[in-house]
Design goal:
Blueprint lengths: L3 E10 L17 E6 L4 E6 L4 E6 L10 E2 L19 E3 L4 E6 L4 E6 L6 E6 L5 E7 L2 E6 L5 E5 L5 E5 L7 E6 L6 E5 L4 E5 L5 E6 L7 E8 L2 E6 L7 E6 L4 E8 L11
Parallel strand pairs: 1-21
Antiparallel strand pairs: 2-3, 3-4, 4-5, 6-7, 7-8, 8-9, 10-11, 11-12, 12-13, 14-15, 15-16, 16-17, 18-19, 19-20, 20-21
InterPro entries: 6-blade_b-propeller_TolB-like
Length: 265
């Protein structure tokens, strides 16, 4: 399946930007994932500063201290561990989980009372990256050399494990809550893989001709998939893939055009 580019555009109205920089930051934030709950709390994985941040969506302000994903309580500038966060997903209204690939950890945090507190850590998840939560199950993707997807209970019980020859670096994941099918972004091969609920390959979406380096994924509805595309030395973008028509169109903003992968989200 090779979605063809079209001249159609999906228009978004830009409302505001949220500055994720904090006075305590040592580097420019590099946010690899964010998750938003129903009450307007944002949990952000700041890879650049090796920490988790809790932000109020309305005020744009940090609501508590950050949580280090490397050394506790604060990572030394000479630290060589580089335990940086990657993915984020809320598992209920108050709790979120954050993946830390190099540490092989899934860190569960609680956001109640506008405070960010570590609840527990699950270990032995080497190169865990993309996260999604659907119908009480946690979906985790694993980069090289693991190259797999796991479905877990939040107590670390493994329900299913998928892998196939097309898995290279499955960095992000989203799940269709209607049929429980799974979408994975393969950033390095510029593909999105569509699996059914048993991990059987349904489609390979070759995006080389339409977007560059697919990363974050979001199902807008059952037939439309949004894909964030990252360019290291170019203009980042977002695309909408019509799964029924196999067409790809740009998602653009009215007014101020957002930079989808900047230090401000």
């Amino acid at each position: 399946m090779k979605p063809k580019g079209t001249s159609n555009k999906t228009i978004l109205t830009f409302c505001r930007e949220i500055d994720l920089r904090l006075p305590s930051d040592r580097k420019t934030p590099s946010v690899t994932a964010i998750a938003l709950n129903g009450s307007g709390r944002l949990v952000a994985a700041d890879l650049g500063n090796t920490c988790i941040k809790l932000i109020n969506k309305q005020s744009g302000e940090c609501m508590s201290r950050t949580v280090s994903t490397c050394c506790i309580p604060l990572c030394n500038t000479d630290c060589v561990k580089k335990y940086r966060p990657w993915g984020v997903s809320f598992i209920d209204e108050d709790r979120a989980v954050v993946s830390v690939p190099a540490a092989g950890k899934l860190i569960f945090v609680d956001t109640r009372n506008d405070q960010l507190n570590v609840v527990k850590e699950l270990i032995n998840h080497r190169q865990c990256r993309g996260l999604a939560f659907c119908r009480g199950r946690l979906y985790v993707t694993y980069g090289s050399p693991e190259k797999k997807v796991r479905i877990l209970n939040t107590d670390d019980t493994i329900l299913k494990t998928f892998s196939n020859e097309y898995f290279s670096e499955p960095w992000y994941v989203t799940v269709n809550e209607n049929d429980m099918s799974i979408f994975l972004s393969e950033t390095l091969t510029k593909r999105v893989l569509h699996l059914n609920d048993n991990g059987i390959l349904v489609h390979i979406m070759d995006l080389k001709q339409v977007i560059d380096k697919p990363r974050g994924l979001l199902l807008k509805d059952a037939s439309r998939l949004w894909v964030c595309a990252y360019r290291f030395n170019g203009k980042d973008s977002m695309a909408e893939i019509d799964l029924d028509k196999a067409e790809c169109s740009d998602v653009v903003g009215e007014g101020r055009i957002p930079n989808w992968y900047s230090d401000r989200y």
